[in-house]
Design a protein that fits this description.
There is one protein chain. This protein is of the alpha+beta class and 1436 residues long. It has 36 helices and 40 strands. Strands 17, 18, 19, 20, 21, 22, 23, 25 and 26 form a 9-stranded antiparallel β-sheet that branches. A 7-stranded antiparallel β-sheet has the order 28-29-33-34-32-31-30, with helices on both faces. Strands 3, 4, 10, 13 and 14 form a 5-stranded antiparallel β-sheet that branches.
Length: 1436
């Protein structure tokens, strides 16, 4: 009953969507009937209500639906194709639908036979023949004249033809047929002879129609009369007749005034109302007389209607065996409308037949629908019950796959998705042997009941129980029992395995089934015998929840055997409602997920197991966003830590001042010291104490206000917080740290001066006390020795007091500023007393100090530095160099004042802790020239061995002396990060830590010297662009994208080398840093495209200036992206990335956006050589939509430093690349190369390997026990576990930057080690089966792999791999190709040869092979590792 209701709903929906002409005619008929009823009511004066048009329309629609359902179900109930005997799976070729316009829907009829539009060749031949015997000829009956008899006389030829025709017709007479059907023409003589013998002749019949007639009548189609042997070749039917209908395509009863008719149609009322010729009037009268009735063929001839062209005659061969075929005649509408109805009816016949077979399968599986099941109100989507495909993913508008054909018969006419569009299924098949793929996963398509499809029984017989079946892999010699076949679709996997049973299936219960099939076959006219290879197939079900067999052993019936295998898979994948009907076993579990289906044949059993799977999507980042919320929270946490730490520092100062004051007061009783000196010391101490108290109050107020302001903004209640305010927030923690460091250093200087005076006065008192016996001599000695020290200390104290009172405003929290006025908070390598580190002090050491280490012996005159020099020579023309030198000289002579630009004023207004714009009384000269190098860098300086030893001894003793001053407070936390370094552009303060290479890069990129050189490179590029695009009008956003693309494609080298130094409070050099930025302009364009969200949209705009100008290239948009990049690099931590064998050191930024990898000198040189190709490839990806999964390298640098305190010097090459797993929660990580040789990681050895790699990753820093180390980072967190690979997103671990010891322990417990697994581990993880991907994800992933490997092969790169992270929450694979900086050079060739020598036959090839072979192996491996999981919405 549910199936009938569902079929009725399906038919009603299809009529509405695919038969609009019929609905229109029904509406017109309903309107005509309603108006006619209303007129009749008015004429007769009846008071009863007339039916409305909508009611009549509903009745007519229901009548059509019921008629179609009756015809479809009757056709399926009678016609039974025999697939085992060679019939087709589809029933529709055996159910012909004939359209005859006119009449009523009730005139539609079902007939067990054939109906076709033909007529007998002579009007005197019989029109009705009961129990007719039919003979069929594929050819005709004609006399063929050969070359020999062409010269004969005409009489002779006629005589020969008559004799030949008599012979042929005599052979036909002997069989006594009633009807002769010929495929071609029959000569006139033969027609006369056949007419005399009372044989009806039908000629010119198509071969397809002859095949249908032959099938249903049992006749044999003869190719020639010579093949006539006996009467077994004749076909039989109960009645042969000719029926005539009025040609309603021409003659219609509607008036032209009421309905528009075509030029080919003739309106009978209109013709009869005009003066027309007699023969036309006779035809019109005949058409009116005939109407919509049916005439016998002889009556039509007798009445003369056939002659006048009024009727169409159809041949009806009735009474054929019903199981062999049928014909359905449709009437009741016009021909175009009936054509649409015919299309719907054919599909309904297919649906009804499928439900019939599906019902048989469900019953034999002992399943049923739940009692509460109801047909859903949503539109039907399948021809099967309980199947719901859902909505297209991501609002996909493409139609489902239908076999790749453009046949409109397989699509809905309405354009909507209907069951007509879901008559095919795409599946992925995988053959497995012991967790090993025999063949790559293959996507196959099955169109239901087509030549691509097979029956369920045929699949079981040929693919499961056929032991002679060979594997598709020629190298596999195993049988079908050793294989397992998996079908994957949507969210399910059907695994089929064949196994031997101990005992064969008993056949005692088969007798009843065979007897039933025999009875059904005896009722047919064709006595078919089973095939010799036919063996019974039984089925049973095992419930995994109940752990028992819950259904009896049932042999497949003929209907189940003939069910479409494609439909079987669709029901298996999508029928989630059916339950097992086993009351004897008390089992009502789900048929799909809780049971295992078994099919048995002899001693073999095929197990069908369903598994739920979740296909992954593939994520490759196209835009790297800046996590503003993380940095805001990070800054607030930094401020909180600064607040706590500064309070402790201020308490130390209070205690120190109190102790010095107490010692000073103790000296007031001594007659040796002057009271005014002691009072001056106390006054100085009181001033320092007041400044400490004031600084405590000001700093806490500033931190509290900032924290309160931006905490509210963080909660979303404040929407008026602008980006520049957030920038001020990000800058404030390090600004306040540097300010406190400078202020505390000044306090230390003043306390040291006061302590110096106090020490001198103590010596005077001590000397006076010990020499009281000789008071005339001792005071003179004391005055000569210590009095001068006291006076000197007093002068120093007064000078420092005057200097700091002018330069440091504690109340407003300001510091001295440079004359440049570029918005910087304070600039210059300044000393606490306001002095400038001299050029001689900065140039104390030469570049050679970086390269004295033999292990890191890299000469600056090599190729890389040659590129730097060449870049400078291109940009710095003689005019530019002269102008820069003159501007440098003039800058040293101009007055020292602060610029009153817009940015500093805005910063002062919006963030009150920023220094005010009052001119500074002291100026600080810039120690760098325009080229980013020290002015004295070019000077040669000879360093002898003795001088080096002397310098080292001096540094050692000076370092020790600093710690012996008892009056100085240790700054501790505030002294780290080298706060005396010069601020960058816009006052940006970037701390530098020796153990964090990214901080050296960030400080260099933020420096004014780098910005000057970069702008000059950019200016040259912009001038070239403006010349080339001078006359091209374009919008700003498009031009901005073009400018970025041009900069990325620039071929001119733009390497920038920047050197900077750090000094102590005495002006002595502590450390020298150098950073060389390669391809600065091109990498800046890469960052603009990759880190700018507007670049991902076509209509985005970035920049408000004119196209091609320098300002647009270095405007606010570029600075914002660069600032975010610098801010990320400003804080990083050492990271032990497991899985690699190179031992390279890694660092990762605190916000997880970037990974900094140390690369070898060779890799750097190779990458620089192919960098233009790399930029060109990225431009295609960013601006032309080229799919790629390359891990984006956003910068390549060479950095080095020489720490004169520890004597440590190093020079490293680093590449900054995106963190592929940024903001993702990864549970597993795989590094895949496509080779299995040595590509397996055992979990037991992971910890040891990670510990070894963590030791290698610490080459930048020193041990934590080094008391003189300056490598501790404020926010990088030394509590990071260097032995683990953290891939957390959003970072629970990274939120707390300076936790205490207990927090460190909790964090270490929370962090989990995620080892990087290899190819062998990946296959073990997937059990050898490919990892499922969605259709769109696999298509994009496959295209990206092809593009990337082709590009890498062209530039001769190999040994790359793809990093795959599994995000279980989002069900995505986060992928990226890494390690693509090594080319196939002579070393790699030697490595390949060395690894190939010990190879044995059959073993895996080494990982190092030629780039084209590496590419092929890599792409083939990706096809083995990942497979497409199609759905019903997949298109090919």
């Amino acid at each position: 009953m549910v199936a009938a209701n569902y079929l009725e709903k399906l038919g009603r929906e299809l009529l509405r969507t695919d038969a609009p002409l019929l609905l229109e005619e029904i509406k017109q008929a309903a309107a005509a009937a309603s108006s006619s009823a209303a007129m009749t009511k008015t004429t007769m004066g009846s008071k009863s209500s007339s039916p409305s048009a909508s009611w009549v329309e509903s009745k007519l629609t229901n009548l059509w639906v019921n008629s179609l359902m009756t015809l479809a179900t009757r056709a399926c109930a009678t016609v039974e194709p025999d697939v085992k005997a060679g019939d087709l799976l589809d029933i529709r070729p055996y159910c012909k639908v004939k359209v005859i316009p006119g009449g009523s829907v009730t005139d539609s009829a079902y007939m067990s036979g054939v109906v076709f539009h033909k007529n007998v060749s002579h009007k005197k031949m019989a029109r009705i023949i009961p129990n007719a015997k039919i003979m069929m000829l594929s050819g005709g009956i004609e006399y063929t004249r050969t070359a020999i008899n062409r010269i004969a006389s005409l009489d002779t030829l006629l005589e020969q033809e008559e004799r030949y025709m008599e012979i042929l017709v005599t052979k036909i007479f002997k069989l006594k047929p009633d009807v002769l059907i010929a495929g071609k023409s029959v000569c006139m003589k033969a027609k006369e002879l056949l007419l005399r013998a009372n044989i009806a002749l039908i000629q010119y019949v198509k071969p397809t129609l002859m095949a249908r007639i032959a099938r249903q009548t049992g006749a044999t189609v003869l190719s020639s009369i010579d093949h006539v042997m006996n009467s077994s070749i004749l076909g039989h039917c109960r009645r042969f007749r000719l029926v005539s209908f009025r040609d309603n395509d021409v003659w219609i009863d509607d008036d032209a005034s009421t309905k528009a008719i075509s030029s080919e149609q003739k309106s009978v009322p209109e013709l009869l109302s005009k003066n027309i010729p007699n023969h036309e009037r006779q035809a019109a009268l005949a058409a009116r007389k005939l109407g919509e009735g049916v005439l016998d063929g002889m009556d039509a001839v007798t009445l003369g209607l056939a002659k006048r062209g009024v009727v169409k005659t159809y041949v009806m061969i009735e009474g054929c065996p019903k199981e062999l075929g049928c014909t359905v005649v449709l009437r009741g509408a016009s021909r175009p409308a009936l054509k649409m109805v015919k299309r719907v009816l054919r599909f309904l016949i297919n649906c009804s037949y499928n439900m019939k077979l599906e019902k048989s399968y469900i019953l034999e599986r002992c399943c049923r629908l739940p009692p509460t099941y109801q047909i859903p109100s949503t539109p039907c989507c399948s021809s099967s019950l309980c199947v719901d495909f859902g909505q297209p993913p991501n609002n996909r508008k493409a139609r489902p796959w239908n076999g790749g054909k453009n046949d409109p018969a397989q699509r809905s006419l309405s354009g909507k998705i209907t069951p007509l569009d879901h008559q095919a299924i795409l599946i992925t098949s995988v053959w497995m042997t012991d967790k090993t793929q025999c063949c790559p996963a293959e996507v196959k398509g099955i169109c239901y009941y087509s030549m691509q499809d097979v029956s369920l029984g045929q699949f079981l017989r040929d693919s499961c129980f056929n032991l002679s079946l060979k594997c598709q892999n020629p190298s596999c010699k195993k049988s079908v029992i050793d294989h397992s076949l998996s079908f994957i679709h949507n969210d399910g996997l059907i695994n089929i395995s064949v196994e031997h049973m101990d005992n064969p299936i008993p056949t005692s219960s088969l007798q009843k089934q065979q007897q039933k099939d025999l009875d059904s076959s005896l009722s047919t006219s064709k006595q078919e015998t089973p095939s010799p290879d036919y063996e019974p197939i039984a089925t049973w079900t095992y419930c995994m929840k109940c752990s028992q067999v819950v259904t009896p052993l049932t042999f497949l019936s003929k209907q189940t055997w003939q069910w479409s295998f494609g439909k079987f898979l669709e029901v298996y994948f999508y029928n989630r409602d059916a339950i097992i009907n086993a009351p004897g076993h008390r089992c009502s579990c789900r048929m799909q997920t809780s049971s295992q289906l078994f099919f048995g044949c002899g001693s073999l059993a095929a197990r069908f197991t369903y598994e739920k799977i979740s296909p992954y999507s593939v994520f490759c980042r196209r835009h790297l966003p800046f996590d503003e919320a993380f940095h805001r929270m990070h800054s607030l946490q930094d401020l909180e830590h600064i607040s706590v730490t500064s309070s402790s520092l201020f308490v130390k100062y209070d205690n120190q001042i109190h102790a010095i004051s107490r010692e000073t007061r103790e000296l007031f009783g001594s007659a040796m010291n002057k009271p005014e000196h002691l009072q001056a010391v106390l006054s100085e101490l009181n001033l320092v104490s007041a400044e400490v108290d004031n600084a405590t109050k000001v700093l806490q107020e500033k931190i509290s206000s900032v924290t309160a302001k931006y905490s509210k903004a963080d909660s979303g209640k404040r929407s008026d917080v602008r980006n520049n305010e957030y920038n001020n927030l990000f800058n404030f923690p390090w600004y306040s740290r540097r300010y406190l460091f400078m202020l505390a250093s000044a306090w230390n200087e003043r306390l040291s001066a006061a302590g110096q005076a106090l020490s001198a006065m103590k010596k005077i008192q001590h000397a006076g006390g010990s020499g009281r016996g000789d008071s005339a001599v001792v005071p003179a000695i004391v005055g000569d020795a210590s009095t001068e020290d006291v006076i000197e200390a007093m002068k120093r104290m007064f000078m420092l007091q005057e200097t700091y009172s002018r330069n440091y405003n504690v109340t407003k929290m300001t510091m001295p500023r440079s004359y440049k006025g570029e918005g910087g908070l304070f600039e210059g390598n300044i000393l606490p007393d306001g002095r400038v580190a001299t050029l001689e002090q900065e140039a104390e050491i030469d570049d050679e100090e970086f390269y004295s280490d033999p292990d890191n012996d890299i000469d600056f005159e090599d190729d890389i530095d040659a590129d730097v020099l060449a870049s400078r020579n291109r940009v710095y023309s003689p005019q530019a160099s002269s102008s820069s030198s003159s501007s440098k000289r003039s800058s040293r002579q101009r007055p020292k004042k602060v610029s009153s630009g817009k940015k500093p004023s805005e910063m002062a207004e919006e963030l009150p802790m920023i220094p005010d714009q009052s001119p500074s009384p002291l100026g600080f000269a810039n120690n760098y020239d325009s080229s980013g190098q020290l002015e004295s860098q070019g000077k040669s300086k000879t360093v002898t061995a003795g001088g080096a030893v002397k310098s080292a001894l001096t540094r050692f003793f000076n370092r020790g002396g600093n710690k012996e001053d008892p009056y100085v407070v240790d700054l501790g936390f505030f002294g780290k990060g080298r706060p005396r370094l010069q601020p960058g552009i816009g006052g940006l303060i970037i701390p530098v830590f020796d153990d964090q290479p990214s901080t050296i890069i960030a400080h260099s990129l933020a420096s004014n010297d780098y910005d000057v050189q970069f702008k000059q490179f950019l200016t040259a590029t912009s001038q070239t662009e403006s010349r080339s695009e001078k006359h091209e009008p374009s919008r700003k956003d498009i031009e901005q994208r073009r400018n970025i693309e041009r900069r990325m494609l620039g071929r001119n080298k733009s390497h920038i080398k920047h050197t900077f130094r750090d000094f102590d409070e005495k002006g002595q050099q502590l450390c020298k840093f150098v950073c060389t930025t390669f391809w600065s302009v091109q990498f800046n364009a890469v960052r603009q495209a990759f880190m700018n969200p507007q670049m991902s949209s076509k209509d985005s705009s970035s920049g408000d200036t004119a196209p091609g100008s320098t300002k647009s290239s270095s405007g606010a948009n570029r600075l914002d992206i660069e600032k975010s990049y610098i801010r990320s690099l400003a804080q990083s931590f050492a990271w032990a990335a497991s899985g690699g064998k190179s031992g390279a050191a890694f660092s990762r930024t605190t916000d997880d956006r970037f990974v900094i990898k140390c690369i070898s000198r060779t890799e750097l040189q190779m990458f620089l050589d192919c960098a233009p190709a790399y930029f060109e490839y990225l431009s295609k990806a960013f601006f032309h939509g080229l799919p790629t999964v390359l891990c984006k390298i956003v910068g390549v640098y060479q950095i080095g430093y020489h720490n004169r305190v520890t004597g440590r010097r190093t020079m490293e090459q680093v590449a900054v690349m995106q963190n592929i797993f940024y903001s993702r929660k990864i549970s597993k990580i795989f590094d895949l190369k496509g080779s299995l040789r040595g590509r397996f990681t055992r979990q037991g050895n992971n910890l040891e390997k990670e510990k070894k790699s963590s030791k290698k990753s610490k080459q930048y820093g020193r041990s934590k026990s080094d008391a003189t180390s300056d490598s501790e980072s404020f926010s990088s967190g030394d509590e990071k576990d260097d032995d683990t690979l953290s891939t957390s997103s959003g970072g629970v671990e990274k939120d707390e930057k300076v936790p205490n010891n207990s927090e460190k322990g909790e964090k270490a417990e929370k962090s989990e080690s995620i080892p990087t697994l290899l190819d062998g581990d990946f296959l073990e993880f997937t059990s050898g089966r490919p990892l499922p991907l969605t259709d769109r994800a696999k298509a994009v992933f496959h295209m990206s792999i092809l593009n990337d490997t082709l590009f890498l092969s062209i530039i001769n790169v190999l040994d790359y791999s793809i990093l795959v992270g599994i995000d279980e929450e989002k069900m995505e694979l986060v992928v990226g190709i890494i390690d693509f900086m090594r080319q196939y050079d002579i070393l790699k060739q030697m490595e390949r040869v060395g690894k190939s020598l010990p190879m044995v036959v059959g073993s895996e090839a080494p990982t190092i092979i030629q780039p084209p072979l590496y590419k092929a192996r890599f792409t083939n491996a990706m096809e083995r590792y990942f497979m497409t999981v199609p759905s019903k919405w997949t298109t090919i």
